[in-house]
């Protein structure tokens, strides 16, 4: 019976430490990835907009559009424990390719999720997943 109390106490202490560390981390972060995509800017831009608009978890709204070189999307749900923008910059790279840079300016409001975002998931995980999906669709 005593070992159950110790396990519960250890879990509670770990939870408190995670929240304390989460509070010590900054709410905002910036993460950026660049990739060469085998599509000209005029073909890449609508694909990126389509992929951003297809996101329903979390819902996204387009905040700024400058085809075919720039657009900014923002998380549209203000009730989530996180928010922020993704800025997509497209630069021509030859006749049928583009250099794409995606910059996430994110905010994580909840200290538990802030800890998880920083130490468990990483700030680059969603960017890397998006780029992998984009590269598969651009072929």
Plain-language structure description:
- This protein has 139 residues and is of the alpha+beta class.
- It has one domain (2-138): 2-Layer Sandwich (Alpha-D-Glucose-1,6-Bisphosphate, Chain A, domain 4), CATH 3.30.530.20.
- Helices cover 45% and strands 32% of the residues.
- It has four helices and five strands; from the N terminus they run αβαββββαα.
- It has a five-stranded antiparallel sheet with strand order 1-5-4-3-2.
- Strand 2 (60-66) and strand 3 form a beta hairpin.
- Helix 1 packs across helix 3 (111-121).
- The radius of gyration is 19 Å and the shape is elongated.
- The termini are far apart.
- The mean pLDDT is 92.
In short:
With 139 residues, this protein is an alpha+beta fold. It has four helices and five strands. The protein has a five-stranded antiparallel β-sheet with strand order 1-5-4-3-2.
Question: Key terms for this structure?
Answer:
single chain, 4 helices, about 140 residues, elongated, five-stranded antiparallel sheet, alpha+beta, Alpha-D-Glucose-1,6-Bisphosphate, Chain A, domain 4
């Amino acid at each position: 019976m005593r070992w159950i109390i110790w396990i519960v106490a250890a879990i509670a202490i770990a939870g408190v430490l995670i929240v304390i560390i989460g509070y010590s981390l900054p709410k905002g972060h910036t993460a950026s990835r660049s990739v060469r995509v085998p599509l000209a800017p005029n073909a890449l831009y609508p694909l990126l907009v389509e992929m951003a608009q297809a996101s329903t978890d979390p819902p996204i709204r387009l905040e700024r559009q400058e085809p075919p070189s720039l657009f900014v999307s923002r998380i549209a749900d203000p009730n989530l424990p996180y928010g922020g923008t993704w800025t997509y910059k497209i630069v021509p790279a030859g006749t049928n390719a583009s250099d794409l840079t995606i910059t996430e300016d994110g905010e994580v409001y909840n200290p538990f999720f802030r800890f998880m975002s920083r130490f468990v998931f990483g700030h680059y995980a969603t960017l890397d997943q998006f780029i992998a999906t984009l590269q598969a669709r651009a072929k």
